[in-house]
């Protein structure tokens, strides 16, 4: 009665070269679109995913979001916008050079929405910009392209149901001339770059950001993963535990020294301390002056005897230096099960060797690290490869190994990647049967 659901043959992130190729295809297909128009749809700092289907159709979109473009034959010549999501139609109204013949910027207006004047647009943009500067734009992320500022920060702050035309207002340059932000023009991309934010500016200080309620939504975009398969998929997150070196910094800003933090969270902590102690160099905003507490946190015990301690550090190096003084851990999650592993993760080892003449066996160990049940996997592989499998304890070590009859080393590695989500970098393969 109903057609079967269509499943993609593969899902993957675009490499840098593929991103450039996609942008060239869009530029050729929509010659009126500027670089900033395309960047608004496919932000440079956001992962872009592609779903490839059996009929050669390729579907592109921001990873975890809605599909934005589809390519009929995967060659890049017949590529079109999907136009099926509210967010996409809003962006189209901002970059209407993709869909209008005269190249002029139209303002998308709903049935119950009245046209906004230039003054209304400026006022609303100012409010959205200040909201973004208070809530999502961090100093450590600067400089950032204007297109990224717009799509990732300003646009999400606009009121629901309102569509704005960015081309009707020189809002970024205007705020720069007023001293709120510092902006420069990229002469190659012809795009404004946000360099810094003056958080002592009267407009910034007097603005009170709104508390927005986060809506819980279920995303069904690219890539789509079935519920049964998602239970098998793995998530590995690198986190960091505070050490005695950095504990004084955390204590100073009132942060828990017993928690685990992501690299970005740890970076936010040290920049909060810098802001609290007013350590940014006045003559060069990109430099942080090291006070005794911060200097000890970053370099105590790491500087050779007789060597002078640094007195300042560049902002771009501060976060990494702070994180390096913490203890690395990994949080491994599969379905509802989660475990914290100290230090680096041990790899899964897949090895093929000969037994009794020309017979081959393939051994698989290290499964427990990634929350894979050896017994369940052995039963699964027995059916998949139509061969006998056994599970045995590793001699002299903790854990078990699965032994599969036959030389299935390549297929087994592929199975662990596709069905259990084990990253390729965590799989070590050794074929002892090859001479």
Automatic annotation (TrEMBL):
The keyword Calcium does not apply. GO terms for molecular function: translation initiation factor activity. Residues 1-28 are annotated as: Disordered. Keywords: Cytoplasm. InterPro entries: EIF2D, eIF2D_N, eIF2D_SUI1, Pre-PUA, SUI1, SUI1_dom_sf, SWIB_eIF2D, SWIB_MDM2_dom_sf. GO terms for biological process: formation of translation preinitiation complex. Gene3D superfamilies: 3.10.400.20, SUI1-like domain (3.30.780.10). Residues 348-420 form the SUI1 domain. Residues 1-10 have a biased composition (Basic and acidic residues). PROSITE patterns: SUI1. This is Eukaryotic translation initiation factor 2D-like. It comes from Prunus avium (Cherry). The lineage of its organism: Eukaryota, Viridiplantae, Streptophyta, Embryophyta, Tracheophyta.
């Amino acid at each position: 009665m109903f057609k079967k659901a269509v499943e993609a043959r593969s899902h993957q992130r675009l490499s840098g070269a593929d991103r450039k190729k996609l942008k060239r295809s869009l530029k050729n297909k929509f010659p009126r679109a500027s670089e900033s128009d395309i960047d608004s749809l496919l932000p440079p700092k956001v992962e872009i995913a592609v779903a490839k289907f059996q009929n050669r159709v390729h579907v592109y979109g921001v990873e975890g979001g809605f599909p934005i473009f589809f390519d009929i034959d995967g060659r890049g010549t017949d590529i079109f916008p999907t136009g099926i999501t509210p967010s996409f139609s809003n962006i189209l109204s901002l970059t209407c050079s993709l869909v209008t013949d005269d190249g002029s910027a139209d303002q998308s207006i709903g049935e119950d929405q009245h046209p906004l004047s230039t003054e209304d647009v400026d006022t609303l943009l100012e409010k959205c910009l200040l909201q973004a500067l208070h809530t999502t734009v961090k100093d450590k992320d600067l400089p950032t392209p204007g297109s990224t500022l717009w799509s990732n920060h300003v646009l999400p702050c606009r009121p629901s149901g309102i569509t704005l035309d960015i081309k009707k207002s020189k809002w970024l340059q205007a705020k720069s001339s007023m001293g709120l932000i510092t902006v420069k023009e990229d002469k190659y991309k012809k795009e404004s770059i946000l360099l810094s934010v003056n958080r002592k500016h009267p407009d910034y200080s007097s603005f009170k950001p709104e508390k927005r309620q986060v809506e819980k939504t279920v995303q069904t975009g690219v890539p789509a993963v079935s519920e049964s398969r998602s239970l098998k998929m793995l998530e590995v997150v690198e986190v960091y535990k505070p050490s005695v070196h950095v504990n004084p910094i955390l204590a100073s800003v009132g942060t828990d020294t017993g928690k685990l933090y992501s690299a970005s969270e740890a970076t936010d902590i040290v920049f909060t301390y810098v802001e609290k102690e007013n350590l940014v160099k006045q003559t060069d905003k990109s430099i942080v002056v090291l006070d005794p507490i911060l200097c000890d946190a970053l370099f105590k015990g790491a500087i050779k005897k007789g060597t002078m301690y640094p007195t300042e550090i560049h902002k771009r190096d501060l976060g990494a230096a702070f994180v390096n003084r913490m203890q690395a851990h990994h949080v491994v999650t599969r379905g509802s099960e989660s475990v914290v592993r100290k230090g680096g993760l041990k790899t899964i080892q897949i090895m093929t060797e000969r037994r009794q003449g020309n017979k081959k066996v393939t051994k698989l160990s290290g499964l427990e690290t990634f929350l894979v049940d050896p017994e369940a996997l052995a039963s699964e592989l027995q059916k998949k490869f139509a061969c006998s499998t056994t599970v045995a304890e590793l001699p002299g070590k903790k854990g078990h190994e699965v032994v599969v009859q036959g030389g299935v080393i390549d297929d087994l590695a592929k199975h662990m990647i596709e069905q259990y989500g084990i990253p390729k970098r965590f799989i070590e393969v050794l074929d002892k049967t090859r001479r």
